[in-house]
Write a structure and sequence with these properties.
The structure is a homodimer. In chain A, the strands form four sheets. The first copy, chain A, has a seven-stranded parallel sheet, with helices on both faces. Chain A has helices at residues 12-23, 35-43, 54-65, 79-89, 103-106, 110-134, 181-200, 239-249, 268-280, 300-313, 341-344, 354-366; strands at 3-7, 27-32, 70-73, 93-96, 139-145, 160-165, 168-173, 203-209, 211-213, 253-256, 262-267, 288-293, 296-299, 320-323. Chain A is globular. The longest helix of chain A has 25 residues, at 110-134. Chain A starts with a strand and ends in a 33-residue tail after the last helix. Chain A is α/β, with parallel strands linked by helices. The first copy, chain A, has a single domain (3-382), classed as Rossmann fold (3-Layer(aba) Sandwich), CATH 3.40.50. In chain A, a hairpin with a 2-residue loop joins strand 6 and strand 7. Helices cover 37% and strands 18% of the residues of chain A. Chain A is built from twelve helices and 14 strands.
Chain lengths: 399, 399
């Protein structure tokens, strides 16, 4: 039985992954500082679905599944804490979701930019040292983002590029053009991890994940208390989930700029399966590999139209509005990113379907009374970092 | 008259640059926390040449030149301090040397790795925000390192690579393979700076500097109290300077491994001139440009042989010893790095000569009674970060 530490197991992807791996027979222990709950409070936002306490979640999981997930409450910035967990549990694999994962959050102002890069880069550095010190053969499964690549005018490969230049050849890290201080933090992580594979022989899988949609997995459906997050606000809400909530409450779908921004997307049921596949197929000692973890490409306008048409089937009159783009990004560009490695290892993608959009809208309708309209319009401006959002307790822990 | 802020103006390159720019007619203000002096103490090392207090250095400079250099004692991690200096002085250019610049220092142990990345990355982030907030048209002249590139099997270009891939083309950041947590911190800085040029329109010159040698510049020769650092220890000593000190005291030249490691080198007189050239030829608003700042390539073995033969001319019997390499790096590899941009802007290189090596050895002989033999052999092992060196006060300031 694989012992798997899930860092950030209280978050959107982390919770679904912890349940999935536990159900698949892994011995799972979650590490989380519950910082995401603090950020919600400091920003005045909340998941539309009601998230129970970690203790309650784990008790209910034990009741419905008969399986136990362990939990350690602490921060990766605290090396004494982290190293004691690693040396005690001696994981075969560590899945690392425990980073600040919102681009707008990182662009609020200087404090949030510094917090994001400090939290993510130093937390990850501490983790690399803990692995080196206590479990050097442990497989690090690190969540990166497709946003590390940006939108180059060439095909995006999985982490590396075969370069031919002036008659010589090499296989080099794919050049990066990240679009926020958050995306930059993931680029920094990738370079740090790659280095430790070369110098210390650590083994790691860097998963450059696309935008995740959906909220339901087979495990989260086993009890209402196991429900996953559904974020629709301007800071943590991702495009498709936010559009479905907007459709449910009769709000126009807010497409930033022209809407030609194209990205990779995947269903959260594929996220958890990709993690499992990575764990079941570990890299060699000293190997650093990169998988592009998404299943389909869409432009933002295409997504909005899909939600509009699914809404019409449900009798909803969904309108689309192009609002000024708060981000600095190309709004019409070439985009062709490879994503074959995980499929070759056995991933059977859930492609985006009307029924998935229907079910997301249905969940949003169920909770529509809890929607806070004031948190939907973009408040963070890439060009002008300022105090658009209140500075909160999240910043206090910047040590 | 250009107003130039020199961050890290108490260090090896920073001090020489501050004097040179002042002599060239710039209104220079130094910002430095004097951290380098603390690190010396915490590691039990020292410059072979005696370094005076900053106050004394500046007084003597004023006496011999008639020019005044201002000084602000503080840390870039302190944003209130940094932003007040920037908003008060309103520089036309900021030369940023204020980073922990030793690869071995960053590889001592976890604390030193974390300190290096935190100090460098967050200090530089703070600087970017201060520029954005107070002097958005100011030209940032940032010291990077040729070590960002590592040793790829293709020609190294100046910052960007024209890529043709599957029939499409783009000009993308040159892929990076840094060889220590220090070199990684510079890669992170480069990505952060490049991003702010794209998003905020900042203008910056990223100088990927080679290994600097020499200690004398025309300005530092104007009075003994203006003497520059000469580091020969295993942590801060750079190859050629260290070899000259070893030759002077009858110590074998310690070549790490096979000695085929090839890097770009330059005379400190060219360092200061390159900075001046960059300032005199600023990039456009929103432009991020990269210059490879070195003048010649040598392998470590070639350098050792040059010192050996120059020593023989001086009647010294200099031996070369290949010691186990504490670093993880290729010891025989292709290396061809471009460095034409600065020459095209007017740099007239000082190529490495016997007379330069003679003068370095002569300085080392002058101070040979002060050499601490215990600090020459490598104590930091890339493969096994540990407490090879005492943890010192340098770590206390990690906030």
């Amino acid at each position: 039985m694989n012992r798997v530490l899930v860092l950030g197991g209280d978050g959107y992807c982390g919770w679904a992954t912890a349940l999935h791996l536990s159900n698949a027979g892994c011995d799972v222990r979650i590490v989380d500082s519950l910082a995401r709950r603090e950020w919600d409070q400091s920003l005045g936002i909340a998941s539309l679905t009601p998230i129970r306490s970690m203790e309650r979640r784990l008790d209910v999981w034990n009741e419905v599944s008969g399986k136990t997930i362990g939990f350690e409450n602490g921060d990766l910035l605290d090396y004494d804490f982290l190293s004691s967990v690693v040396s005690d549990f001696r994981p075969d694999a560590i899945v690392h979701f425990a980073e600040q994962r919102s681009a707008p959050f990182s662009m609020i102002d200087r404090e949030h930019a510094v917090f994001t890069q400090h939290n993510n880069v130093i937390g990850n550095l501490n983790l690399l040292f803990a692995i080196k010190e206590y479990v050097p053969e442990c497989h690090l499964v690190k969540l990166g983002t497709m946003g590390e690549y940006g939108t180059p005018n060439i095909d995006i490969e999985e982490g590396f590029l075969e370069v031919e230049h002036n008659g010589r050849k090499d296989r080099l890290p794919f050049p990066k053009l990240p679009g926020s201080f958050y995306h930059l933090s993931k680029v920094h992580d990738s370079h740090n991890i790659h280095f430790t594979s070369r110098v210390w022989g650590l083994r790691a899988t860097d998963l450059n994940q696309g935008v995740v949609y959906g909220t339901v997995t087979p495990e989260s459906e086993m009890a209402p208390e196991l429900v996953n997050r559904l974020d629709y606000d301007d800071v943590f809400g991702t495009a498709l989930n936010r559009f479905c909530v907007q459709a449910a409450i009769g709000h126009k779908l807010t497409v930033y700029g022209q809407g030609g921004q194209t990205r990779g997307y995947l269903d959260i049921r594929d996220t958890v399966r990709c993690i499992e596949i990575a764990i079941d197929n570990p890299p060699e000692i000293g190997e650093y590999r990169v998988f592009n973890q998404f299943t389909e490409q869409f432009s933002v306008s295409e997504l909005a139209k899909l939600v509009q048409s699914a809404g019409a089937e449900l009798g909803l009159n969904v309108e689309i509005e192009n609002v000024p783009n708060p981000r600095v990004e190309l709004e019409a560009h070439y985009y062709n990113a490879k994503h074959t490695a995980l499929v070759e290892l056995g991933l059977k993608p859930h492609f985006l379907s009307d029924s998935l959009i229907d079910s997301l809208i249905a969940i949003a309708v169920q909770f529509k009374g809890d929607v806070d309209l004031g948190t939907i319009a973009p408040r963070v401006d890439w060009r002008n970092p300022s105090n658009a959002l209140p500075r909160g307790s999240a910043m206090v822990s910047t040590v």
